[in-house]
Inverse folding.
């Protein structure tokens, strides 16, 4: 079948962002919005219990607008919001999208979609926002269990309908503006082929990302109850490839190499051992290094310091990096697979 590609993760966008990175500009920004997420309590949430309600000191609307203006001056093309809480529960959400658009910046968000009614879906489509919607199962009972809220799954199914009615997934000629986030666990393993078929029907990219040992998985000691062993993952991969295409994998997120990552309180954070911008790609509880804060440093200073830190990691931690490089996940985690990310980052130091 024809490959479905999620526009923000296409090779074209990756190359564009890497090109900007190589010319000392900034193609991508990973921005954590609020830590607040009150409508779901996912059994595997990598961010809870540490976050879940709003944090004191989160960036305000003016600070965020300033941040986007500064990043735009450095060439910013894509804003990614991948982690922490639920973006639609962020009070700055509408203003932030309008601001990004006025600066010619495209936006890609992970969301549980619980707040996406028909009106919101139309608005998002008009603004050209790309979305990765949580969709672990089409079995309502199983999905409710994963979401930790009775009745929540129904709202997500309805939100996907709203998005399709608004025109999401309609462009079948190039890349799609819709993806589904699927975390394979023992709970939803038998349901995943149906989610893949539904994704094909919706022209949505099915993004299967492996379970991270982080957040609630560790706090509630859920790993053994949830994690699939390698043989089950490999079996699932074979099923997914039969439905989609051979060599299916989660693509590299441009921001992990070509971006900077600013968290909800304005800290510029990188993975401590590699200096890469995603703290989740090793599928473990994140270990981050704070490079500076947007309240104290200029954006160009943060970009410069983050890149210098990565260079020093690649020079100092060679053995560790070789070890990470040999980690080839079955599907890949958030941001892609280290076996591909590390050599690509090395080429673009
Ligand atoms: C932390 S959430 C934040 C955005 C939004 N609240 C959501 O759930 O989509 C971002 C993505 O990480 C995924 N995720 C959360 N915990 C995870 C874990 N332990 N392992 C793998 N993916 C996880 C979620 O399913 C979601 O697709
Ligand atoms: S995974 Fe997303 S929707 Fe689920 S609890 Fe965590 S932040 Fe909320």
């Amino acid at each position: 079948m024809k490959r479905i590609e999620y526009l923000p993760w296409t090779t074209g966008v990756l190359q564009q962002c890497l090109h900007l990175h190589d010319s000392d500009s900034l193609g991508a920004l990973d921005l954590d919005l609020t830590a607040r997420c009150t409508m779901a309590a996912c059994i595997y949430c990598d961010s809870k219990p540490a976050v879940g309600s709003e944090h004191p000191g989160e960036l305000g609307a003016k600070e965020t607008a300033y941040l986007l203006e500064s990043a735009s001056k450095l060439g910013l093309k894509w804003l990614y919001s991948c982690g922490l809480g639920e973006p639609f529960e962020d009070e700055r959400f509408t203003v932030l999208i309008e601001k990004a658009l006025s600066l010619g910046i495209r936006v890609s968000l992970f969301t549980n979609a619980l707040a996406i009614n028909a009106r919101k879906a139309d608005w998002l489509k008009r603004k050209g926002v790309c979305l990765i919607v949580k969709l672990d199962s089409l079995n309502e009972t199983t999905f409710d269990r994963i979401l930790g809220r009775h009745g929540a799954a129904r709202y997500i199914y309805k939100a996907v309908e709203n998005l399709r009615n608004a025109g999401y997934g309609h462009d079948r000629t190039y890349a799609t503006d819709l993806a589904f986030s699927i975390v394979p666990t023992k709970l939803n393993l038998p349901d995943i082929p149906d989610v893949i078929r539904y994704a094909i029907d919706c022209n949505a990219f099915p993004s299967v990302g492996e379970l991270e040992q982080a957040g609630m998985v560790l706090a509630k000691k859920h790993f053994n109850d949830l994690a699939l062993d390698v043989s089950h993952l490999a079996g699932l991969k074979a099923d997914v490839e039969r439905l989609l295409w051979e060599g299916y994998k989660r693509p590299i997120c441009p921001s992990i190499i070509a971006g900077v990552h600013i968290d909800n309180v304005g800290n510029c954070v990188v993975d401590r051992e590699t200096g890469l911008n995603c703290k989740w790609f090793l599928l473990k509880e994140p270990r981050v290094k704070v490079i500076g804060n947007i309240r104290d440093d200029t954006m160009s200073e943060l970009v410069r310091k983050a890149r210098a830190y990565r260079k020093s990691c690649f020079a100092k931690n060679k053995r560790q990096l070789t070890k990470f490089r040999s980690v080839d996940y079955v599907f890949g985690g958030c941001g892609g697979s280290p076996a591909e990310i590390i050599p690509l980052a090395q080429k673009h130091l």
